[in-house]
Structure formats: C-alpha cells, structure tokens
Design goal:
The complex is a heterodimer of chains A (about 140) and B (about 300). With about 140 residues, chain A is an alpha+beta fold. Chain A has a domain of about 90 residues: Ribulose bisphosphate carboxylase, small subunit (Ribulose 1,5 Bisphosphate Carboxylase/Oxygenase). Chain A contains two helices and six strands, in the order αββαββββ. Chain B is an alpha/beta fold. Chain B has 15 helices and seven strands. In chain B, the strands form two sheets. In chain B, strands 2-3-4-1-5 form a five-stranded parallel sheet, with helices on both faces. Chain B has a two-stranded parallel sheet with strand order 6-7. In chain B, α7 links the parallel β3 and β4. The chains are: A alpha+beta (about 140), B alpha/beta (about 300). The interface between A and B is medium-sized, with 16 and 17 residues.
Chain lengths: ~140, ~300
C-alpha cells in the first residue's frame, strides 16, 4: 500500500528535477530546508530522524540535492522526506513536507480493533512494517 | 513511475547570431563596465574578454545542437595584494551569470578558516556547508595556498582540498571555484596537489599597478566618496604614491584606500579645528595638500 503523507503523495513519485524545483521554491521563500528519514511510517509519528542539520543560508537547491541523494544512498530502505521550515513570526512552522524516497515494498497498515467496556470498539492503525524491530523493517 | 518527458526536441536553428547573443546576454555592457571602472589590469581584461568569447561561442554551438563537454570554468587568480582579484571575481560572476553558466551571480568569499576545522571530523562538514552555500554561484577562496600546510602532514587542509576537488569535478554545472593568492605560493600549492592544478582551466595573473594607474585609482575613489583634490593635493598624492611604493607592506589599491581614509580623517580634524567659520559644500569636499603631506610616509 502506497504511503500518502505530505505534499504530492497522490502524484507519481517526483523526479529529481521536480524535487529540485520544489526545494528552490522553498529557498526562494526564505524557508529553511531539512532532510529527514524514518522506518516508522505511522501518520502520528512526527519524530523522524534528522539527516544532518537544517540547512541555513542556502541560496540554491543544488546544495540540498546533494544531501537528499546522500540520505537516499544511506537509507534506501527508509522513507525520506524534505521539509521546509518558515521561521517568520506568525508562522514558525513547517510549510512544506514531501517524500523523496520510499522503500521498495510498502506492506501497509492493519486496522486494529480493541473491544472496551460495554463492547465499545476502539480503532487504531498499526503498520505491518513495525512488527520488526527498527533497522530490520523493509528489508527485502 | 515518472512523469513523461516534457522537453520536446525542437529542431535546431540553421544559423546563430553571435552579436544577438552578445547583446542579449548583456555581456558587452558588462565588459565595457569592467573596462571603464577598473583601471589598468590590461592583461587581465584581455583574458576575461577571451574567456567571455569562448563561453559565448560555446553557447552558440549549443544552440545549433553541437554538443561538447561543458567548458571547465574553475579559475585561479594570482597576484599581489590589492590588485583587484576579489573585484574581478565579482565581475566574473556577473559575466558567467549573464551567459547562463551559473544560476545566480552570487560570490561566496571564504578563506582557510571557513573551510578547515580544528579537530578530526570537523573539516568535512564545515567544507561541505560552505560548498552548499556557494552552489549555483561562484566560490571565491582567498589566500587559497593556506589550505595546504606542507610543514604539518596531519593538517586538515588536505581533507578540505579533497572534498573541494570532488565537488569541482562532480558539480561542474552547479559551482565555479575561483582560487586567489600570491603567485609563488599558489604554484607551490598546485605542485603539491597536481589534481587541483589540472582541474583549473584558467590561470590569470594580476600585474601590479603603475604609479599613474594608482593615481587614477585614487582620483576615482575620491570622486566616489564625493571628495575632490585641489591642485596641490593631486601633486601631493602623486608624491605620496611614489614614496609609499618604496615602503614595505605596500598593497596596491588597498594601500591607497587606507591612505585616503586617513586623509579624510585629517581633513575632518582640520575643518573641526577651524570651526566658527561658515563652511560651504566646496570646503567640505576639498582635500588640500596639507591633509596628505601630514602623512607618516613623508616624514620617513
């Protein structure tokens, strides 16, 4: 099941040229771009691992692309995303976030039902991938 | 799955108008500005003109569909201090940007301290940070020979040079590197790092200024600061330049700029000492001979 998180996730995967153009847009707005990766795709997992530090004072997307490619090489079996943080007063938040790498096989999510008092059912999602310990997920 | 290719192969035009390219890219204007605003530097201007012509023809060839390896644009500027290397690097960035070889006409100027770290593992991230910042434009490394310290074989400069070489080779389309420094010491750097020398296509030597050129530069600087020499002052400046050139640590145009800053200081204190009289704009602008002749250079 294809993970749909962040921008453009219902589109076909972005090409490198398209990723570069999106990053250039973020830099032109004065946002700080960072690269992150994770192997826990749960939608509520907001703590992705940073790939290096956020890249301040960049003017051109070529610099970020170096890091995107390096992170993909290192973490080919993880999700990698690019985020753009807007530090201006009134925003101070992530303005863009999109996936730039996904594992070859995405097993998807299980709908977990838990029965509570009075036969009330609670629903939650669980990624099939997270059944394996970190580092062993998404191995072919 | 990827998007279908959007670039349609347009039929190549049969001819190309070099002159249209020349004016269209604004190169003529840039070269004329260099000629007008930078005094002296004859050989340098010739080389810059040659490089601009090469890049222009290269672009014309590409319009006609003649593919060739993109030209190597990394340069080395050698010359004594104050001979206009940094200024020329900025102009070079404008030219490269005008011709579309770099995406923005920004120059990031760095020295050894910005590239080389202080302990193991510090250098690589530092160098990469600088390179990332410079992407899309020109990276100007001043006093580049300091990167290599032959007396210390565990110096981290070597690491910075290796990363620099890698990026100079892999990201030719994204980054133009200009190294600058004294000629002898740059040659020593290239001797010890043959890879570095061979990746730099254009070596440009900046000659020292002649006394006449320095006087012209001084007059131009004075005009830019909205001052003017009176008759005696121009003669005093000529004499000052002749004396200063014989003294140690003379650094061409930079020495002139510093001298003018001190001259302004003396002019201000002269005007201040004579306060009480009304000053017209002319008096505030005029530099007199005495402002220059009080310099230490004349007493030595």
């Amino acid at each position: 099941m294809r993970l749909t998180q962040g921008q453009f996730s219902f589109l076909p995967n972005l090409t490198d040229e398209e990723i570069r153009a999106q990053i250039q847009y973020a830099l032109d707005q004065g946002w700080v771009v960072a690269v992150e990766s994770t192997d826990d795709p749960h939608p509520r997992n907001s703590y992705w691992e940073m790939w290096g530090q956020p890249m301040f004072d960049l003017a051109d997307a070529a610099g970020v692309m170096l890091e995107v490619k390096a992170c993909r090489r290192e973490h080919a079996d993880r999700y990698v995303r690019v985020i753009a943080f807007d530090s201006r007063k009134g925003f101070e938040t992530v303005r863009m976030s999109f996936l730039v790498n996904r594992p070859a096989r995405e097993p998807g999510f299980e709908l977990v039902r838990t029965e509570g008092p009075g036969r009330r059912v609670q629903y939650t999602l669980r990624s099939y991938a997270t059944a394996a310990p970190p580092g062993e997920r998404y191995r072919a | 799955m990827t998007f279908p290719a959007r670039t349609l192969d347009a039929p190549s035009p049969a001819t190309v108008d070099l002159d249209a390219l020349y004016t269209g890219a604004g190169i003529g204007v840039l070269l004329k500005r260099i000629d007008r605003e930078l005094i002296g530097l004859g050989p340098v201007k010739t080389r810059i003109r040659e490089i601009a012509a090469l890049l222009l023809v290269e672009r014309a060839r590409r319009t006609l569909g003649l593919h060739a390896e993109p030209p190597s644009l990394h340069m080395c500027f050698t010359g004594n201090p104050g001979t206009g290397k940094t200024t020329m690097a900025r102009r070079m960035a404008d030219i490269l940007h005008g011709l579309g070889y770099i995406r923005r006409s920004q120059v990031i100027s760095v020295t050894r301290d910005d590239l080389v770290g202080q302990y193991i593992g510090h250098t690589a991230p530092k160098t990469k940070d600088v390179l990332k910042k410079a992407m899309g434009g020109v990276l100007f490394i001043d006093e580049a020979y300091y990167l290599y310290r032959p007396e210390n074989e565990r110096d981290y400069g070597q690491e910075a040079i290796e990363i620099l070489l890698q990026v100079m080779e892999d990201n030719r389309d994204d980054l133009v590197v200009i190294l600058a420094g004294y000629r002898e010491r740059m040659e020593a750097l290239f001797r010890s790092n043959p890879g570095l020398g061979s990746r730099i296509a254009h070596h440009i030597e900046f000659p020292d200024y002649t006394p006449e050129e320095l006087l012209l530069i001084a007059e131009q600087m004075v005009a830019e600061m909205q001052y003017r020499f009176d008759e005696g002052a121009a003669a005093a400046m000529r004499e000052y330049i002749a004396r200063r050139m014989r003294q140690p640590r003379f650094s061409n145009a930079r020495s002139i700029r510093n001298a003018l800053d001190r001259v302004r200081l003396r002019q201000a204190s002269r005007l201040f000492a004579a306060r009480g009289t009304a000053l017209d704009p002319m008096a505030l602008q005029t530099i007199r001979a005495e402002d220059i002749r009080q310099s230490r250079v004349f007493s030595q």
